[in-house]
Specification:
Length: about 280
């Protein structure tokens, strides 16, 4: 099941954001958790809004009340932090000029008690703010209709420049995926979680790069598992994405894999995601 943190990462991912991580300490002890604050910029709507991820913090009664005191500071970020802008010519928009909608999303791992929630809502309304509380029950409800339709197998060195952008783009096209940054949480069995994803996802996207082809560890084991599944199920599961590799490179790695129709990463992320989606839906 998807975690609340996964939904925090995905929700609003279509917009540019500025964020800060705040370590929470208790007395002089080591940090007990880290809150994430994000300011989102929706240039199409000429609007901006705020979201927070709040882990379960032992000993802190209502961290939501604490983060809400930071709103004035957060709204100055377009001026005090790196400038955010979009567009050219008469379409140019500066993040400082976007209107703050007053919408504030609070993703809290520990549900806020009803009496405190009502109090915060009233206080927020008095300042023109609209508070939206999302907790573990929110994650459970969404998980009922969100089931990964594809597993993204990749080398960890390709995570930031290929795997994660591709996972987010597929999510924008309403195609949930199994991706380690979204689907794993602290304490999970890495092997068991990956094997479950490989078994249950209808398709597997292989991000074939020089890093992937040279990896004799997890990437090779994932490929072997997927190939075995194809033999057992007698069904095509693998959807290859090529980036920086040639047919000869792939043939050397796996002659059978070289025969599969692939999509080239050079086409651009949206085109790659659309072609994968058509194959997933087929």
């Amino acid at each position: 099941m998807a975690t609340l943190h996964e939904y925090f990462v995905k929700d609003g991912s279509q917009n540019l954001t500025v964020h800060e991580n705040w370590k929470i300490n208790q007395s002089e002890k080591s940090p007990i958790g880290e809150i994430v604050a994000r300011l989102h910029f929706d240039f199409d709507a000429r609007a901006k809004y705020i979201s927070f991820y709040i882990p379960a913090l032992d000993g802190v009664v209502c961290p939501e009340a604490i983060v809400l005191t930071k709103l004035p500071e957060i709204l100055t970020w377009p001026e005090t932090k790196t400038g955010v802008a979009m567009g050219l010519g008469n379409e140019y928009q500066d993040g400082r000029d976007l209107i703050f909608t007053g919408r504030i999303y609070l993703y809290s791992e520990r549900p806020v008690p009803d009496h405190l929630k009502e109090q915060l809502i009233r206080e927020g309304q008095s300042q023109g703010h609209s508070l939206i509380f999302r907790s573990t029950d929110y994650a459970m409800e969404r998980a009922k209709w969100e089931k990964p339709r594809a597993f993204i197998s990749h080398d960890s060195r390709d995570k930031s420049n290929i795997a994660e952008p591709l996972a987010l783009q597929l999510l924008k096209f309403m195609c949930p995926v199994w991706y380690d940054e979204f689907s794993l949480k602290v304490g999970d069995s890495l092997r068991a979680s990956i094997e479950q994803g490989l078994r249950e996802c209808p398709k597997c996207v292989l991000v074939l790069t020089p890093n992937f082809l040279s990896n004799e560890g997890w990437s090779k084991r994932e490929y072997d598992t997927i190939f075995t599944r194809e033999l057992v199920e007698k069904n095509n599961v693998i959807l290859p994405v090529w980036s920086g590799v040639t047919a000869a490179d792939v043939y050397k790695y796996s002659p059978i894999l070289a025969d599969r129709v692939s999509v080239q990463w050079s086409l651009g992320i949206e085109q790659v995601a659309r072609r994968l989606l058509r194959a997933i839906d087929a």
